[in-house]
Amino acid sequence: MQSYIGILVFYTIVVVALLAIILALSYVLGQRHQDRATDQPFESGILHTGTARLRFAPQFYLVAMLFVIFDVEAVFIMLWAVAFYELGWAGYIGISVFIILLLVVLIYEWSKGAFDFGPDGMKILKAFKKIRK
After folding, report:
1. How many CB atoms lie within 10 A of CB 91?
2. Residue 95 contacts residue 77 (beta carbons within 8 Å)
3. What angle do CA 42, 47, 51 make, to 5 degrees?
4. Long-range pairs, 48-52, Cβ under 8 A, ≥24
5. CA distances (Å), 122 to each of 110, 113, 129, in order?
6. What's residue 132's pLDDT?
7. How many CA atoms does the CB half-sphere of 117 hold within 13 Å?
8. Could you tell me which of 38, 43, 41, 15 has the C-alpha nearest to residue 30?
9. Which residues contact 58 (CB under 8 A, 6 or more apart)?
10. Could you tell me which residue, 102 or 12, shows the higher pLDDT?
């Protein structure tokens, strides 16, 4: 470890020096504008209207949680399966806790209606029966 300290110090000095040189050159060589539109945001030539702070419906967050449940955990479970014999019982208990937490999140999302992507079938049938009478 002692032999790497000198390399680490040298590398740190070189990085800080390059950073200082780049910032100084951009300050000296850069253009300075004081036009009226300099501080305005520019997005593809369209003037901004209103704020960028928008409220999203809770369904967007539920869909994000669904992504975590059905996609990202597949990576962890596959990695656990690859190292199954090396991890032993500790790995088995760890992945079991992980899967139980995923099931809890899945049940939570189901209770919040995250899987209600379309109209309720029962409501449609009731309305249809009323029309037929």
Report:
1. 15
2. yes
3. 90
4. none
5. 17, 15, 11
6. 77
7. 3
8. 38
9. 112
10. 12
Q: How far apart are CA 87 and CA 96, in angstroms?
A: 13
H or E stretch at 12: helix 2-29
Report yes or no: 71 and 119 within 8 Å, Cβ to Cβ.
no
Domain locations in the chain as residue ranges: 58-132
What fold characterizes domain 58-132?
Methane Monooxygenase Hydroxylase; Chain G, domain 1 (1.20.58)
| Cα gap 98→90, rounded to integer Å | 12
Give the single-character DSSP code of 52. S
Q: Say what the pTM is.
A: 0.44
The string of pLDDT tens digits covering residues 23-48 is: 999 999 988 777 776 666 666 667 66
Residue position matching structure tokens 């996609």: 71
